[in-house]
Amino acid sequence: MRWTRSSVLIPGLLGVLHAQIPFDPAKHPKFAAWFDAPSESNILACEVRPIPPHLNFGFHFVSGYMGRLPLKRYKRASHSFAILTRVTPDDSGTPSYFSQLFHLPAMPAMPGKTLANVEMDGAFFLGEGSYLVDWIIADRVGQLCRKSWHVTAKLSRGDRELNPSLPAGVVGPLHYEPWNGVPASRIEEGAAPRRLTVFLHVAPLSMRRLKLHPYDQTMLLSSVLSLMQRTPFTEIKLVAFSLDQQKEIFRQESLDGEGWNRLVKAVTSLDLVTVPVSVLQRRAGHLDILKGLIAEELKSERAADAVVFLGPAARQAEKLRFDDDQEAGKPDTRFFYLQLKLDWNRGSEFPDVISNAVRALSGKTIYIYTPHDLFRAIRNLK
Questions:
Q1: For labelling alongside 51, which of 178, 194, 295, 317 has CA 20 to 30 A away?
Q2: What does the alpha-carbon distance between residue 189 and residue 348 come to, in Å, rounded to a whole number?
Q3: What's the pLDDT tens digit per position in 281-334?
Q4: Which of 141, 173, 205 is the last residue of a domain?
Q5: CATH number at residue 57
Q6: Are residues 241 and 318 in the same domain?
Q7: Residue 214, number of CB atoms within 10 A of its CB
Q8: Could you say which DSSP state residue 327 is in?
């Protein structure tokens, strides 16, 4: 399929799939009827590229589409569009319906031949299994473009131990999962607490970018949630920080549901592009932040059993020096650095300031390229 360069991206950025909103066909019979409309109603020309199911770092299968619609029909006036998706499991035959609505503003006049297109994308969660996907884009006067395809979500032989988050044959909307605190089933009466401290390094996965994109946010939050869900620790402290901004952006001593919601908001609203003058003036400010976090754990009376740095590689690569009293007072705590990497950038494994600090504390750096890498790393913490 040939995709032209001149495009308007709707609703967002290349490299991230957007959630669709579930809808009840009984409450929206007009939308539901479009899936079974006669073929002559297919008036719009469009292209769609299915996204095959793949595991994300929350151990969900994610599938979806990237679509494209030529703008030659909509040169001047503004228009509204609906994107509808029906996903039907082969086993149960019970479909799930999703929708996206967007508005296209009036386009300025363009001399010569119009080459612009409008691009859109969408995604949903799947359990293991095979599914029929029916996809529609409709304009406000009811002109349609329809496509259909099959997808299969299946674990590879090497991923069988991962235990996906959704049961087989289940379809769900893309969303940030909630965290409601450590489950009561983990806590044994009379047993000593097992403490985990997570230091979440909030930064883009690619050092070439300054802005934190939705893909970065999703990978950070789904990874830390998987870590908390799949470890046996009974007390979890979480601190999110930015070395580039030289500040903490979130902290809670015992992470609960309300704290998780605040963490999601803090990560998704963080502006990394604007750097205060005060940060530029503190050339070693990132070292102060990192050293302060580590010193806090080394001197804590409630020492963690494990301290995990989680996040992308830092731009900085200095070696952190510890005071003698910090070294002498170091508790029997294991330190780990789970460094999130882009799967297509293998081989770029260079030490950064966090890995240097973890190594100085006799800790271990583990590179995370795939969900299976994350699963194995989490297992090593138990």
A1: 178
A2: 46
A3: 888 889 999 999 999 998 888 889 999 999 999 999 998 877 654 554 456 789
A4: 173
A5: 2.60.40.3880
A6: yes
A7: 14
A8: H
